[in-house]
Amino acid sequence: MANPGQELSSINFGALIGGPLVAVIEAQTMAARATADFIKAVGFDDEKKPIYVEFKYPKEVAPYKPAVPAQVTGVIVNNGGDGYDQATVDVAFTPGSGEASNAIMPKAKAIVENAKIVRVDMIDPGTCTVAPTAAITLNPTNATAPTTAASVSVKWQTEIQAVDAKYQDMKIEVPILTMLPIPFIRIEEATIDFNAKINSMETKSESTDTAISGNLEVRQRWPSGSAKLNVSASYQKKTASGSTVERTYSMQIHVRASQDEMPAGMEKLLGLLEGAMKATPLAPPGP
User: Fold this and answer.
1) Is 114 left (phi over 0), alpha (psi -120 to 50) or beta?
2) Does an H or E element contain 7, and which?
3) What is the mean pLDDT of residues 22-28?
4) Taking the mean position of all CA atoms in its chain, how far away is CA 81?
5) What are the DSSP calls for 210-242, one per residue?
6) Which residues, including other chains, have CB under 8 Å from residue 228's CB and lie 6 or more apart?
7) For residue 56, what is the enclosing H or E element?
8) What is the pLDDT of residues 161-194, one digit of tens each?
9) Residue 287 CB contacts under 8 Å (≥ 6 apart), including other chains
10) Residue 272 vs residues 45, 157, 244, 262, 263: alpha-carbon distances, Å
11) Which residues contact 123 (CB under 8 A, 6 or more apart)?
């Protein structure tokens, strides 16, 4: 009968395990060479100079400036005066010379602290096209006059026309290696599964055949007689034995590869190439 232990001990596990590991190492070596070949073939020319990709694009050198209408942007307090009551203060605007009759005058609120006007807050700039004048008035008009009258002036913004953006036609040269994903394949994990199945079977059979036969013959002769007896016997035994061994082997190899991190040297090279990007103006700025 076969011994499964002896069967397994006769297997060359060194070759079974070492073979796939050597294949993984060779694959990693091929991947590293492929990376080096890719960098040399794609990133550099025959003179070992970086290969550049050229792009043309318009660069904005002056942004668009929207139009600014003429308007009152604020009221400046020249003299805060003294003796003002918050409830009796108002800001009155007088249209400038030549102002349109349908123009809406600005609205503002005077802020009084310690009986003095400290500032004027704008509420609505209005639609004036000519700078108006502003003054601090009492409301109602018969309110007690302040000890010292305040004086204010209008901060006026003249109309500004819109200014279009200006563009400069530029040409930029970029190293192609900085634009492409560089393959850095790394064998991250390799798993080897080996299964052995040994079935041993021993068979034995035995059979026996036995046969006995007889024949009696009597002859009578007077005054005396005679008898004859014939007997035969046979014996047969058959024995058969054998053994059957079934062997089944299976091996599975799982390999997981991933994109490895960029080596420090390659990262530094790409940094140098990024610093070598060139941007060149092609024409004067447009309107």
Assistant:
1) left
2) helix 4-9
3) 85
4) 66
5) EEEEEEEEEEEETTEEEEEEEEEEEEEEEEEEE
6) 216, 217, 218, 219
7) strand 52-62
8) 999 989 888 888 888 888 888 888 878 788 878 7
9) 164, 166
10) 17, 50, 72, 15, 14
11) 106, 107, 108, 109
